[in-house]
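Students often ask what a 'structure token' actually looks like in practice. Rather than answer in the abstract, let us consider phospholipase D, a protein of 725 residues. Its sequence is given first.
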Amino acid sequence: MSFLRIKEGLWRTKAELRGFFNPNHRHDDPEEIEHDRIREEIRQSHRFQSFADIRDNNTVKWHIDGHDYFWALSEILDSAKECIFILDWWLSPEMYLRRPPADNQEWRLDRLLHRKAEQGVKIYVIVYKEVTQTMTLSSRHTKNALNELHENVMCLRHPDHIGSDSAVQFWSHHEKVVVVDNKRACIGGLDACFGRWDTHNHPLSDCHPTDFSRTLFPGQDYNNARVLDFQQVDHYVNTQISSLEIGRMPWHDVHMTLIGPVVLDIVQHFIERWNEVKLRKYKKRPNVDWLALPHNVEAEPEQPVSRHPHLERWREIGRQFKQYWQGEEGFPEHGGRTPSGTCRVQVVRSVGDWSHGVLTEDSVQQAYIQLIREAQHFIYIENQFFISNTGNVGPVKNQIAKALVERIIEAANSGKKFKVIVIIPEVPGFAGNIKNENGLKTIMAAQYRTINRGGHSIYEQIRRAGFEPRDYIRFYHLRTYDRINSPASFIKEMEQNSGVTYHEAQIAQARLWIGDDGYWHQEKVKIQGPQPDFGMELSETATTGKDAQKVVEEVDFPPSSQVATATVKKFESGATRGDRGVADSVAQHTLRDKTNLKDEKWYGTEQEERDSYVSEILYVHSKVMIIDDRRVIMGSANINDRSQKGDGDSEIALVVEDQDEIESRMNGQKAVYGHAICCYSATQTLPRTFGPHSAPKLRPRQTHSHIVYASSADSEPKRTRDQGR
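Now compare that with the structural description of the same chain:
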């Protein structure tokens, strides 16, 4: 062991002891106390007690699902001239931002970042450093893969769990942020990682037996977390489940891209985090830059950032990039004039000492509560979780549910119509069946205690006030179906004719897309097939996720791209007919496609077609709340204590109010809505739920599209099988 490693080990031990004996060591000397006072004074002057003020003249665009957002992200990253900042919970360097990969090799994330770094762009990335005993994010692989791209790429991980002065074991960095050139930013629920790219159709199937180049979800990207969570994500080719037999779990999410003065507040959040991680972990490493805030405080001295306690120090020691929102610089492409949007935007966040080196800020929760209290007509919520408290009883502390109850009772007492729609996943996105997996049961029990059980839930509190809760608030989840293009007799014939199995070809195609520049040696790849009782989570005979892992097939890993190409071609040559007339997915029918599902061609037997249908939850990962089609809060924060308490998971969100208003009607009366927000909500989940031409009527309704369930106040939601038949 080198002297430097020993020295670093001693330094880390000292830090851990300092944090153990004095958890408040970053806030106890006179200078630190003064810095905290200044920050708190700034926060107290802002709405929601946020570090950032409200900013006017921003342009905001909504991106629903991964296809739209990641295409926009590829364009934004490709436009970079000076710098790129990225915060992610999980980042997969081998993720394709544009699909299919066969036509978009240059748009793999690591290749795009390498291209920009070679052009002189400085790239700074922070990813969450997971507890490896419980999570499979492989942030070490992310860091190594990015840092090896080019000297202009720097990737840091945080927090340390051993040898750290914070002793963080439970909380995570959960933000999903990208900033380019201090001009454009992205914030929402989508990490740039495996399993997030999806289309509006949300296909479950990605089986193309006669033409593997049409694959949309290569390698690790073909995933179903309800069957098996990601494993060994540093091995890109490890397709953990069979695309021949198991449908993927579709992913519904939302993200925003924006341009305008508010970008500087997002930049401030990133630079504060970067410098805090640099201070704690990389202070002695000169190759890791300090960063300076880019704000032009001389042009706008009244801005709160001019009082930032580290402004001058970071300017002295840090690298500073240009900004375009303060002073006379403007945008060169706009003739020196900055673009002017119509949205008022404020950044809110959840941060604390462990995550950001500051006193606790819970402006995300404060924004949720205040926006709910100020709602006039309706509230629309999509979230991955729904765990809150209606009072002060129990371990859950956040008060979002209490705000909902109070607003509903206020409306009911005044005799006014008021509606709340909440869409959450049917079950948490973890492997295993409900009866045998304690983690699943714990989360679901907490959500039921929030919604309708336990004595203090939303439904029970509203009933206690003398009103029927389902007249005011309803909970929904989404489910979908698809058909896998895999007639058993045809696949068997192809395998016999070619001497290559389908799974060998599936792995070979993934090996082609990892390329020789991203090759990590492995000899065998394991693929899981379905259990006989797959999907029967409530069955007495259902197996657990751990049992399901025993049904595996081992496939040889192609040693080179040439071998992989030959394997795929050999399998495809075994086809005695083409199948271009057969749809590889029929998921478009879940969105009320103009064609009829019964007219879809099928070249196998009727029984084979029946067997090919699969059904799965449409996993809602969004973190968005829309108020009266006038205001939105969207970001990375879930509705639970982890995200809302401030000193738990670190989070960021935007509160958006569109000043470009249009006249419409609400409850038979004239009303005014924000144009961009109204367009966004019109293309969100509601058209899937209620149909494109019908107004929401808050009745649980099964359409020919996604199957929508309302949770009952008295019973468990029911599962169904063979939705497509």
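One point worth highlighting: The CA atoms of residues 388 and 398 lie 6 Å apart. Ask yourself how you might have guessed this from the sequence alone, and why that guess would often be unreliable.
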